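This part of the workshop introduces the protein records we will be handling. As an example, a complete record with its sequence and its structure tokens follows.
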Amino acid sequence: MSPANRLSAWAVFAVLAAGWLCTSAAQAASPLRGPPHHRTTVPASAPPCVHLSARLPHMGRALCDAAELVATEGRSSQGRTLYARDVVAPQARLRVLVVGAMHGDEMSSASVALHWIQHALKEPADAHWRFIPVLNPDGLLARPSRRMNARGVDLNRNFPTPNWASDAKVYWEQRTRKDPRRWPGPSPLSEPESRFLHDEMARFQPHLIVSIHAPYGVLDFDGPGAPPPKLGRLYLDQVGIFPGSLGNYGGVHRGMPVVTIELPNAFRAPLDSEMRQMWMDLQRWMVERLRP
């Protein structure tokens, strides 16, 4: 091969190599992995379990579908539907509201709520149960998931406790040092998710609210009456009240007892046996302590 031809061949090789490198870099930077014909996008309008079963720990599609979640009128900040499920015992005397995933990065809380729907169908404990497994779908479905809603608000600091305007701001600035994960929002009930739960409390008038969180591994309680000493392996350790929190608003100021479950891990759900034991302990305490 002549020197001129060798030079031409090297030029062609350089062009092809540069193109291959650019393509590889673009594929590496893309959030979609795999060849183009293998990429799939789940539409936002898909049934809720298409999204939830892919994100939640210990949550198969069949179990999620079995929950038979029903669309409510509630919407998230990004317009996602908020879902609920009612399970009513034949002679229900208590109304119990169960809320999961108020914080989007506490995925195990939604898993427990969905598993508990199946327990309620088998052992309803003379109660009318209303489950809202995912109050903050925008935070849960974000990548990575995040505590706040899509507007950056901590929903568990957004409820209208007395003196919210002064107390919530001072607490956020001085106690959390303006931690963005705990921003209470511009005003109480500024967020559609907290407004929905607030309105649901007024409509449903629960005798008990169970709010499932993670990852502190304790049991908290706010409101009138004697708290449960334990649920499963979680023991009572009351951590105090915070401006704008659901426990403060519902338990202290509305007189609706609030049991706050803090699971030990935000991304790993408890074993089936542990979830069942928590459910049984909750029912036992309800029967002994709650009065309609």
